[in-house]
Write the structure tokens for this entry.
Amino acid sequence: MNLTSYLDLYALLDKKSGSREERRAFGLEHENLKEKPLQQLLLWTKEYRGRLKRPRLSEKIGSYLYGITLTLGIIAFLLGLFSGIALLNYSGHEPVNVVYFMAMVILLPLLTMALALISMFRAGASRSFLVHLSPAYWMEKIIRLFPGSVKKTFDEVQINPAIVNWLIIKRSQMLALIFSAGLLLALLGMVVTKDIAFAWSTTLHIAPQEFHRMLETVALPWKGLFPSAVPSLSLIEQSQYFRLGEKLNPEMVKHASQLGEWWKFLACATLFYAIILRFCMWLLSVAGYRRILKRSFFNLDGSEKLLREMNEPVITTSSSKREPAFESEGKHYSREINVFNDAYDRTLGWAMSEDDLKVLNDAMGVISPMMEDVGGTNSLEEDRKIVSRTEGSVLLYVKAWEPPTMDFVDFLEDLAKTADTITVAPVGMREEAYLPGNRELAVWGRKLQNLGEKKVWLKI
């Protein structure tokens, strides 16, 4: 289940693909999915998407979205990389203030994730202020301003606004994750290639002891696993920096070799708050996106009708009572029956597809384990093979409006040699509820009467 399947189903329903009989035949072929409507829709879409003109709407929109995502992903990674380099740039005169980097990898992710959670609760609204703050939203708006085929493609489809909102939320979390990966790479790269002196400094009056307690709280997620990644009180005291001129505190110079130990804390903070938590938010957005996408399949115009036509017979019989076959001097033929039997050993259709036979048996309330098409495009040898393995009771559907040909009569004579009973059932058009007209029945009755085969019955 993805956006491609949703757009393909949208296009197929818009084109009204598949006749009533085709849809019912599909439903009968996959009766095990009757209680799983979403899987029915997905499988039907997969089977019929070949009828859509290439490139399909889903392919064009998917290509544009992939291009947008790739562009934004590269921009996000470069922004994260260069932001990290700028924050960790060490001139050799002043230490790098860890407070700035902590704000970027702890405070900013927590703030944006809180906003993302709020936007998830508001994603069902067509206009969501927080969703529309996303760069992904505005990039797609800019794409819509492009002339030509791009704008035309986006104008062709009316996607559920909730899907668009969740798509933007999901992509925003992914872009934030890529941005954070750039920050982490910048940190590791700068630590490896440079001898950085870290320090902390703030205008707020915070004592080292208070700052230590705060960092211990921040480091709770990894404190048990990586205790060395939690700054000690002595390190915090030694690395407190006051801007009192261009010269460093002599104590800081004295303990310069220890100031680089901050990188472990910064790396763990980036990994947990900016990457692991963001990844969890991305998973949450994926779950929300899939939930709304699943619901939207059933909200598409025509999907309920499609499911109904797949799962309901074309014709429903009003009476379950069966009348036994009887012999009489009928109006059309001496051996007529008014009602089908409950079951036949084999169902054959003259110039009919197997799907047609499934639909007809379903409509007539007939059970038959074997269904095959005869006549039509079949060769004489193929029909003879079918006749040779046919026995028991046979139901033979014919098109009422097509008079019996010599090929049909020859086939029927051969079939009578192997079958016990043969019920010839002329069927009309679907618009006429498959009921044959009296004139058509009279034509078939006269032909069967002339044949004089006692095993053959006519369904009137």
Remarks:
- DSSP finds 19 helices and eight strands in the chain.
- Residues 262-299 form the longest helix (38 residues).
